[in-house]
Amino acid sequence: MTVAAGIGYVLLALGPSLSLFIAVISQKPFLVLTLLSSTLLWLMSLIALSAIWRAFLPFKTGLLWPYTLVILTSVAFQEALRLFLWRLYKRMEQILDAFADRVSKPHLFITDKMQIALAGGMGHGVAHAVFFCVSLLTPAFGPATYYVEKCPQMPFFLVSAIVALAFVTIHTFSMVIAFSGYSEGNRMDQYFAPAVHFTAGMLTLTNLASRGCVIGIPLLYGVAIITLGYCGKMVWRRLTENRGTLH
């Protein structure tokens, strides 16, 4: 492969996030800081999880339950971290609202809150893409490519980029759903994020089967589309309900 191919893989995994960053996040410095801090925090969590599980890898069995256990514990840890971020965000919101009262400014609008959640979710997605995809792409800039026996149809780097894009989408918009659920006390929205996170993680196990990527990748994108659609429906509902408090 060439440098162009390597850059293409990076843009495939992170291109939509870059567009969203330019269109929305970059317009407000506070959102940029939220994105950067979220990315760093999620990267640290992934590094910590990998350090814990490194002691048990590679598994010396062909059974799926050890991999299921890895995914289950990883998702549980990250969802607990998401709840921690929500509580941290609520504390920050109280501070900002108190400051707004002192300077006679309005409190955060619902659109501001959704954008903060979007920036936090994008940080989660970017961290996932960097950890599971971009960090593996150095050989892709060389003169050759790499295939794995289980998925001979596509280069390994292409599969990684495609999977990373799906997870970036899922993490970005599931954060908006989760934060809305926590704010409203909506159980459906609260459970949606961990459910799709675990489902997406389990779908990656199809890559362990021969030609499993042919089935797993479309299913993974099905989960991403469901997440995007659910988020859009939720945002529309909340904006409609709070029409009088928008900018």
TrEMBL record:
This is Gamma-secretase subunit APH1-like. It holds the Pfam family Aph-1. Belongs to the APH-1 family. GO terms for biological process: Notch signaling pathway; protein processing. Its main location: membrane. It is a multi-pass membrane protein. It is found in: Membrane. Keywords: Membrane, Notch signaling pathway, Transmembrane, Transmembrane helix. The lineage of its organism: Eukaryota, Viridiplantae, Streptophyta, Embryophyta, Tracheophyta. The chain crosses the membrane at residues 6-25, 30-53, 65-85, 116-137, 157-179, 191-209, 215-236. InterPro entries: Aph-1.
